[in-house]
Design brief:
Length: 345
């Protein structure tokens, strides 16, 4: 009997060594623990065999089996600690060796948003005609957005612009890019030829053709003897380049904006059809360009002498033009973040 027990103890020791070698993760190790120390485990069973021994053998094997139990417990604990150490090390090295530049096949390539692409296209055309790019802030003061544009307090033209007023006195989100005209005039000396592209804001009900946020492109040319003819020539050239047409007719109608005198609305012949289509609403003309000659009061606010200089200004809807050019029929798509829509451009 005692011989049989000694052999069993040796076998268990052997098995322990082999099992622990195979414990590659905590889960396997837990199974090993149950195998040895659980209610029906090898050690527990061995202990229950003690009661069948003679007193002498009990004295001999009791301590041996206890020692074996402690050894098993200790080795399992050690293995667990080692496993945890290894795991943390692996985690850290994975983080440290993460290669952000690694090439991943089949990845989707992003590209610029259609509004950004179009803005660049418009800017490139004006740059090719000798214009420079100016900027203006989106948060403006009453002075730049209205007063300096010949729209004093209580002027009815303020009603044309549903304004987002800010909590700070006289501060607002610019309702058009025209305030950037004044910044450009104040910061440079004539001759000035420049454009400003950027976001503008109006407190409007959103629908397929109105958004509370949209883009405009403002342009000014100030020099000696600038006339409306210069405005028409620049507009025509720009539209021909943008729509890739050799000879694109424009027509002029009177328009009213307090910051220009005279003010005009420039329409272009529909570049998409000859006899009327859904885009020109069967009229063959499309309204695109409000503009005019800069009002002397505005030049004065810009610190430019209206006796010496004259200039033209225009301010068209960049958002509206991109929709026209690419036949986008709902302005809300532009800020929808819909990949299917954006992928087309
Ligand atoms: N700022 C005007 C608007 O947004 C457009 C405009 C600009 C008209 C420049 C004339 C000259 O409505």
């Amino acid at each position: 009997m005692s011989n049989h027990l000694s052999k069993k103890i040796e076998k268990i020791k052997d098995k322990l060594t082999r099992s622990l070698n195979e414990a590659t993760n905590i889960k396997i190790l837990e199974n090993i623990r149950i195998n040895f120390l659980g209610k029906k485990g090898l050690i527990t069973t061995l202990m229950s065999e003690l009661k069948n021994l003679s007193i002498e053998d009990k004295k001999k094997f009791g301590p041996l089996i206890n020692k074996l139990k402690s050894k098993v417990e200790e080795q399992i604990k050690k293995t667990k600690e080692n496993l945890i150490k290894k795991q943390t090390k692996a985690k850290i090295s994975k983080k440290e060796n993460f290669d952000v530049t690694a090439y991943k096949t089949n990845q989707l390539n992003g590209h610029l948003h259609i509004l950004s692409q179009f803005t660049q296209e418009v800017e490139d055309i004006f740059i090719s005609m000798g214009f420079e790019i100016f900027e203006g802030p989106q948060v403006e003061t009453d002075f730049y957005n209205f007063t300096a544009l010949n729209i004093p307090q209580d002027h009815p033209a303020r009603d044309m612009y549903d304004t987002f007023w800010l909590n700070k006195k006289n501060m607002l989100m610019r309702t058009h890019t025209s305030p950037a005209q004044i910044h450009a005039m104040q910061n440079t000396k004539p001759p000035i030829a420049g454009i400003v592209t950027g976001t503008t804001f109006r407190h409007e009900a959103v629908d397929a053709s109105h958004d509370i946020q949209f883009m405009q492109c403002e342009g000014i040319y100030i020099d000696k003897n600038v006339t409306l003819a210069n405005l028409f020539a620049v507009t025509k050239k720009f539209l021909e380049k943008l729509f890739n047409k050799k000879d694109l007719d424009i027509r002029i109608r009177p328009g009213y904006f307090p910051f220009v005198e005279p003010g005009v609305e420039i329409d272009m012949k529909c570049p998409f059809c000859k006899n009327g289509c859904s885009i020109c609403k069967k009229t063959t003309w499309i309204e695109v360009f409000p503009g005019g000659l800069i009002h002397p009061n505005v030049l004065k606010f810009g610190k430019i002498d209206p006796e010496k200089y004259s200039g033209f200004a225009f301010g068209f809807g960049l958002t509206r033009l991109v929709m026209l050019k690419h036949n986008i029929n709902d302005v809300r798509l532009l800020h929808s973040g819909k990949i299917k829509f954006l992928e087309q451009f």
